[in-house]
Specification:
By secondary structure, this protein is α/β, with parallel strands linked by helices. The protein is 43% helix and 11% strand. Helix 1 packs antiparallel against helix 2.
Length: 418
């Protein structure tokens, strides 16, 4: 049995989001009105003008006020009707379609949802079968059907959720549990928050999981798809640096596997950023640039593959502090290419359709800007797109995993000895 497709909290969250959108649109139209109405020789021409004056300004303010009043009333009414609208049981698996929509919404607007306490904002949690886990030893022991000393933590990508690790006929978690004796735990998080924020939240959460595990952990493996690889790196970084000496788990991570992770950024986000600059340079169209800025902090971080917080300059030339790979962890980088094997223009330009091969492997022309993945721990799969990395049998059987497989199956080094 799964939860209902639509819940009362969803309706309240949608009502609040709609109110924010209408009020923001009114402000956008007013800003364009103000720019068009100002005289070229007036004092206003020398500065940005966001508000109109007199009766016109009063009209726009009235629209915003009425919108917030109606939106607040609707949200209050939905809250009052909540018992009748929802019979959701948090112990039951969520509806996959609802989870997909909410995850996508969080990827695009997750920072705004969190800042406005919107019920649709995802709170980070470890889950099993879509149901949150209580990080207490007895609770984990009773909830997990099978516990092993080999812990696998899976981190999903942007706009996705933990249920989407099962793609096609392949499920990484179940395959690794069945063949290598790992116990898989999925991380569910708001991918619209900055990667650094998610890393800081995850670091102490991983410590709680580590402490509450029903038995001593022999092997700890983190497997991140796309943004998930950056979040894992960020969590290890914050766990080692920011809280040095207080957290044990960062130095106990044996393997970090990154599937299509944009370590050096994603060009599609950079293209969107360029459109912002073009619109911002046009006098009357400048207010429209804010529409292009309706991208979450998480998406903006993908522009340069940022792992820690820090602003980037408008031309994209500034990069946040470089974070190297964790020294105590074996790190694997797997890239996908839409093109065939061998050098081709399609392979170089498109990569997997979202992430270039060089970014996924951490390769950079400038010394000190790349990531030092060992050559034998890098691989490229061809004629595969970004999402197909989750279901590719070739990815799962790559020889670069041999050390991990050997350790798991023989008690010594996830795929030929290194």
């Amino acid at each position: 049995m799964t939860q209902p497709l639509l819940q009362a909290a969803d309706l309240r969250g949608a009502a609040r989001l709609t109110t924010d959108a209408v009020a923001g649109l009114a402000s956008l139209v007013e800003a364009m009105h103000a720019r068009i109405a100002r005289l070229p020789w007036s004092d206003d021409a020398a500065r940005d003008v966001e508000r109109t004056r007199g009766v016109t300004g009063l009209v726009y303010e009235t629209v915003r006020g009425v919108t917030r009043l109606v939106g607040g009333s609707a949200e209050a009414l939905l809250g009052w009707l909540a018992p009748a609208l929802s019979s959701a049981d948090p112990r039951q698996p969520p509806h996959p379609e609802r989870e997909a929509v909410v995850s996508a919404l969080n990827g695009i607007l997750g920072d705004h949802l969190a800042a406005t306490d919107n019920p649709l904002a995802i709170a980070m949690a470890f889950r099993k079968g879509g149901v949150p886990l209580s990080l207490e030893r007895m609770a984990l022991r009773s909830r997990l059907q099978q516990q092993t000393p080999r812990l696998l933590v899976l981190l999903h990508g942007l706009c996705m959720n933990d249920l989407q690790w099962q793609r096609g006929e392949h499920d990484y978690a179940e395959a690794l549990a069945r063949e290598l004796g790992y116990t898989p735990i999925h991380l569910h998080y708001n991918s619209g928050l900055s990667i650094s924020t998610n890393g800081r939240i995850l670091a102490p959460l991983m410590e709680k999981l580590y402490d509450a595990w029903p038995m001593p952990i022999e092997r700890l493996v983190m497997l991140g798809h796309s943004m998930g690889g950056l979040v894992a790196r960020s969590a290890i970084h914050h766990g080692q640096l920011v809280q040095r000496g207080r957290l044990r788990w960062p130095t106990r991570v044996d393997d970090l596997v990154c599937l299509g992770t944009p370590h050096l950024g994603a060009p599609l986000e950079r293209a969107g950023h360029s459109i912002d600059l073009l619109l911002g340079g046009a006098p009357y169209a400048a207010p429209l640039a804010r529409l292009g800025k309706i991208r979450s902090a998480g998406i903006n971080d993908l522009r340069l593959g940022n792992v820690v917080s820090g602003p980037a300059s408008d031309d994209g030339s500034y990069r946040c502090a470089q974070v190297s790979l964790p020294e105590a962890t074996r790190c694997f980088a797997i890239a996908a290419s839409l093109g065939p094997r061998g050098e081709s223009l399609k392979s170089r330009l498109l990569g997997d359709g979202l992430v270039p091969v060089s970014s996924a492997l951490g390769h950079h022309d400038e010394p000190g800007r790349g990531l030092a993945f060992e050559p034998e721990r890098q691989a490229v799969v061809h004629e595969t797109n970004h999402l197909d990395l989750l279901s590719s049998g070739e990815v799962y059987t790559l020889p670069i995993y041999a050390p991990v497989y050997a350790v798991a199956s023989a008690g010594s080094p996830l795929v030929a000895a290194h």
